């Protein structure tokens, strides 16, 4: 029998439907089960979840695989950051003046988690996508930016500016009408010009409603769509006028956007995104940032299902930081009843006649429901 493993993910509370049967258990931050998998979500159960005063709940998903993806930063920290990000943005949307103390504390915790993680940047899509406002996008961009910042040996102070700016980089989107923000089709010229205002709006909101008015974090929100050849927006700044921390966030933003699913398209495979970044390095994107980032990206994630050059299927079991295209894999075989099992581990760095020819199922693309 294939071993069962537990994976934790965050599910937006508003996605839980009354009377549906839960496909996973919901747990609290200490790991205690609040609602068991298989239970029906009655109104009173839902009510008790709403009373926790959280927008995301932690779900425990059972997976029939003997390998699980490693966390980039702890899920609980992501949950807390998302909660703080959501309440901050809601307050800002209502025109309130807000303190960014909570987000600053979250950013410090994220920095600590990133510093403790010795590994590669693995695809950072462990969160279910949230469609109201791209909270998860912002959090992912912040985590990716902090990893890049760490690899570039930035100081703690610079990482704090970077993380906070990246968390708030798309805040100006609060001003974009929902019909335009969620339009599944291509935007027309007029709609596009509305979208392109969001960096300016972000700067204005941060200036008027927060204490972040003189910080470089504000520049990140203003400059994250600029390109070093001057072809970006809103100001068309070149490399000299664009802050280095903004240039890091630009790369993280593009990587996150292209690898994630959107209503109108599936996320691109990491290999293609890496090629895109490399193609623009030194031309539209900062060369040092792209090169540093790419050196630390793995094209695979633990748990990915791949096809080998001899036709067999296997699951990635351990990444190789030196030879990222040659991870360790476990070959998939069938038992007497035809059920899939995982057999011996093969180190593709040692058996060089064997290569991965195809990625059949990326762990980062697996969702509970879509
Ligand atoms: Fe943006």
TrEMBL record:
SMART domains: HDc. It comes from the Bacteria. It holds the Pfam family HD_5. InterPro entries: HD/PDEase_dom, HD_GYP_dom. Gene3D superfamilies: Hypothetical protein af1432. CDD domains: HDc (cd00077). Residues 112-309 form the HD-GYP domain. This is HD domain-containing protein. It comes from Thermatribacter velox.
């Amino acid at each position: 029998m294939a071993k069962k493993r537990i994976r934790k993910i965050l599910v937006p509370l508003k996605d839980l439907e009354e009377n549906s049967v839960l496909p996973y258990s919901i747990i609290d931050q200490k790991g205690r089960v609040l609602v068991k998998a298989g239970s029906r979500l009655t109104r009173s159960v839902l009510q008790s979840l709403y009373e926790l005063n959280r927008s995301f709940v932690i779900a425990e998903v059972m997976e029939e695989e003997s390998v699980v993806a490693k966390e980039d930063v702890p899920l609980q920290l992501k949950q807390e950051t998302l909660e703080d990000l959501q309440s901050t943005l809601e307050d800002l949307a209502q025109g309130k003046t807000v303190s960014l103390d909570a987000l600053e504390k979250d950013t410090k915790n994220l920095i600590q988690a990133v510093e403790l993680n010795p590994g590669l940047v693995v695809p950072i899509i462990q969160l279910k996508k949230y469609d109201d406002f791209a909270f998860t996008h912002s959090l992912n961009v912040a985590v990716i930016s902090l990893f890049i910042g760490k690899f570039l040996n930035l100081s703690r102070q610079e990482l704090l500016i970077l993380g906070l700016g990246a968390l708030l980089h798309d805040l100006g989107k609060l001003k974009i009408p929902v019909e335009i923000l969620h339009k599944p089709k291509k935007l027309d010229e007029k709609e596009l010009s509305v979208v392109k205002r969001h960096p300016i709006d972000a700067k204005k909101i941060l200036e008027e409603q927060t204490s972040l008015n003189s910080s470089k974090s504000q520049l990140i929100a203003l400059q994250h769509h600029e390109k070093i050849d001057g072809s970006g927006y809103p100001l068309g700044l070149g490399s000299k006028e664009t802050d280095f921390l903004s240039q890091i966030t630009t790369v993280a933003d593009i990587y996150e956007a292209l690898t994630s699913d959107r209503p109108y398209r599936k996320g691109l495979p990491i290999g293609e995104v890496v090629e895109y970044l490399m193609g623009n390095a030194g031309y539209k994107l900062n060369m040092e940032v792209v090169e540093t980032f790419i050196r630390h990206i793995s094209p695979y994630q633990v748990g990915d299902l791949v096809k080998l050059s001899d036709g067999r299927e296997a699951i990635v079991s351990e990444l190789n930081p030196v030879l990222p295209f040659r991870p360790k894999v476990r070959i998939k075989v069938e038992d007497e009843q035809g059920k899939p099992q995982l057999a011996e581990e093969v180190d593709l760095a040692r058996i060089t006649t064997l290569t991965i020819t195809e990625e059949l199922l990326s762990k980062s693309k697996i969702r509970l429901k879509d």
